[in-house]
Specification:
The chain is an alpha/beta fold. The chain is globular, with a radius of gyration of 26 Å. Helix 7 crosses helix 12, helix 10 packs across helix 12 and helix 13 packs antiparallel against helix 14. About 30% of the residues lie in helices and about 20% in strands. It has three domains: about 325 residues, 3-Layer(aba) Sandwich (Aminopeptidase), CATH 3.40.630.10; about 190 residues, 3-Layer(bba) Sandwich (Glucose Oxidase, domain 1), CATH 3.50.30; about 100 residues. The strands form five sheets. Strands 3-15-17-16-18-23-21-22-10 form a nine-stranded mixed beta sheet, with helices on both faces. Strands 6-5-13-8-9-11-12-7 form an eight-stranded mixed beta sheet, with helices on one face. Helix 5 links the parallel strand 11 and strand 12. The protein is built from 16 helices and 23 strands.
Length: about 625
């Protein structure tokens, strides 16, 4: 019988009352919070903090062994046996590297599950008497039981005008075959964007050039998986006139579709569904158009009180356990359908391994690690990604000073090769997202260069890029959201592209893994962590500075007292803000209070009082308080 107990843990000088799960990730004994060792006397700064010693990063052999071990478990969905093995592996490595206060914070979870690719025993389809090769299942879609359901099919073509598609009444009691809108690689959402900096220019297409799936499939994959949520919400959630089941035919070849998983994960909607690729789905589309009969099986089960928890741990710094301690936060998700999708934890472990080789007395700050396991949990990811952080928000806000998040690491770029899905030989695209603070942007570029990270792109979605055009949206921004809520701290998010390595599907083997990419990503993250470790004045790195500029750019013409000259007024405010920040970048605050007063007067005089003006004025006061605190300390 599982028991739950409460324990007071110390994170730095913080006492946090935390709910612990009594069963470890590998099914072991209770995790007991260890007491921090007494602080040691610091000596000269270790050079490995400033310049990453590549010889002490994880080796290609060990990295490959880690990924081989992970691959042997299959898809690591929350609560599954594979997930328990993965969490146990993470915990063992953390203990090996000297992490303290390894805490498992359990949350209630009802696990819906079926067999996972390549085991298709739980799902099948027969169309007009012919067995069809099914690529995957529609998660959270209910269950037919082991015998399946037999019914007439009806075609629902998303390419057709809505008025000509079947009504809810016409779909009731039938198996709906959804033909997704075909992929067209046009427009800004279907190609590389502008950027602050990128490596290997010869291995990228020009910004906003259409990307054919034979070059890289991530844009097509995102478009196809992204349609599914809209379809589900549109006509599968009605209480009356529900279909008996559904089949989604995706505009993807078999190699890219096998074992696929839509994301975000929907709430359960009780219309059992299957996913087909465009080749095996062609006959089914014709049969559905003709009103033929099909038998659909999705034999799924539900575990009512499944084991699910977020795990946190701390690699202690020199002041750990005292009021002087501060922490760099690292975060990722630890649940997912594929080898690369949820490998961010391995990236964080590799960073922890690197810093464990530096004596605790030489680590200026602690590293607080969050291994969240709610990314593929239905109805949670967007609204409540980290219950542990939010539950302990006040204490963590006094301790955490910035951070680095990681996900989708170690991948190869994938593309269509006819009906196959193969590595191109190039590295996955790695995006390093940060705020539009010139200091953190420069540090991201420096980290990418020093690690020689292949096919990397530094992005700021708050401002135009080097070509004056829109930059890439912040993938995985939810992992940075808490660092913002904890105080607009400096943050970088390092992520491989989604899902160019087939991140939405589990495939046996390591054909989608590139150890050199993984090691370079770890080196990049280690460099950024070291920057936060060794920077004494973090004021210039706060995202509040760039958010002032972002707020100015967000002003619409009608926000200005003289709308006709809005463009000129906006440009003048941005120039004034940039001039104010120039000495701040070098921790020179002699004129900053006066400059802030002048900017406040300029904003108030040039714009009308509304929510957008207030946002800018509030940020001005935020940076004023940061500067005052820094100058008082000095």
């Amino acid at each position: 019988m599982m028991t739950i107990r409460h324990s007071a843990l110390r994170f730095g000088a913080l006492a946090l009352a935390t709910t612990l799960v009594a069963c470890g990730g590998s099914g072991g004994d209770d995790t007991v919070a260890t007491q921090p060792p007494p602080p040691t006397t610091p000596t000269a700064q270790d050079p490995r903090l400033i310049n990453v010693d590549k010889a002490q990063l994880i080796s290609a052999t060990e990295a490959t062994a880690w990924f081989q071990t992970k691959a042997s478990w299959g898809a690591t969905y929350t609560g599954s046996p594979a997930w328990k093995s993965y969490m146990g592996f993470i915990e063992e490595r953390l203990e090996e590297y000297g992490a303290q206060n390894i805490t498992r914070s359990r949350f209630p979870y009802e696990r819906w599950y079926t067999t996972e690719y390549p085991d298709k025993a739980g799902w099948s389809l027969t169309s007009d008497g012919t067995a069809v090769d099914v690529a995957s299942y529609a998660t959270q879609s209910g269950s037919t039981g082991p015998n399946g359901i037999t019914a007439q099919m009806v075609l629902y073509d998303l390419s057709e005008p809505a008025a000509t598609r079947p009504t809810a009444a016409q779909m009731a009691g039938k198996i709906v075959v959804v033909k997704q809108v075909p992929y067209t690689y046009t427009g800004t959402s279907a190609g590389y964007t502008d950027y602050e900096f990128r490596t290997n220019e010869d291995q990228f297409l020009a910004p906003f050039t259409a990307v054919d799936p034979s070059y890289e499939a991530s844009y097509r994959n995102r478009q196809q998986y992204g349609q599914m949520g809209t379809t589900i919400n549109s006509f599968f959630r009605t209480e009356a006139n529900k279909p008996l089941g559904h089949v989604v035919v995706m505009d993807m070849p078999p190699g890219a579709t096998q074992g696929g998983r839509q994301h975000p994960t929907p709430d359960r909607y009780e219309v059992p569904g299957l996913l087909l690729d465009k080749v095996n789905g062609a006959k089914v589309l014709e049969d559905a158009k003709a009103g033929k009969v099909a038998t659909l099986k999705l034999d799924a089960k539900v575990e009512k009180d499944a084991l699910a928890y977020t795990m946190v741990a701390t690699l202690p710094g020199k002041d750990f356990g005292t009021d002087k301690d501060t922490a760099v936060m690292m975060a990722t998700h630890v649940d997912g359908p594929a080898l690369i999708q949820d490998a961010g934890a391995l990236g964080i472990l590799a960073v922890a391994k690197y810093y464990s080789q530096i004596p605790q007395s030489q680590r200026p700050r602690s590293i607080f690690m969050v291994f969240d396991t709610r990314h593929f949990v239905p109805g949670v990811e967007k609204t409540y990604p980290y219950d542990f952080v939010e539950d302990n928000h006040e204490q963590l806000a006094k301790w955490v000073i910035g951070g680095v998040s990681m996900e989708h690491v170690g991948g190869a770029q994938m593309a269509d090769a006819g009906n196959d899905f193969r590595a191109t030989g190039r590295a996955m695209t790695t995006y390093v997202n940060t705020h539009g603070n010139d200091v953190t942007v420069a540090q991201a570029i420096e980290a990418v260069k020093s690690a020689m990270l292949p096919r990397a792109q530094v992005n700021v979605d708050e401002r135009p890029g080097v070509n004056g055009k829109a930059q890439n949206g912040w993938f995985g921004r939810n992992f940075a959201a808490h660092l913002e809520s904890l105080g607009n701290h400096p943050v970088w998010h390092l992520t491989g592209d989604w899902p160019s390595s087939g991140y939405q599907a589990f495939y046996p083997g390591l054909d989608r893994f590139k150890p050199d990419v993984f090691i370079a990503q770890v080196g990049t993250a280690a460099k950024l962590v070291g920057t936060l470790m060794t920077t004494t004045d973090l004021v210039p790195m706060s995202s509040s500075w760039s958010k002032i500029d972002q707020g100015i750019r967000a002003l619409v013409d009608s926000d200005f007292t003289t709308p006709a000259s809005a463009a000129a007024s906006r440009a003048a405010l941005l120039a004034q803000s940039k001039a104010m920040f120039a000495p701040v970048k070098n921790s020179n605050y002699n004129k900053t209070p006066t400059d802030l007063d002048a900017l406040k007067i300029a904003v108030s005089g040039a714009t009308v009082a509304n929510a957008r003006q207030k946002t800018i004025l509030d940020l001005i006061e935020d940076v004023r308080a940061r500067v005052a605190k820094a100058t008082t300390k000095s």
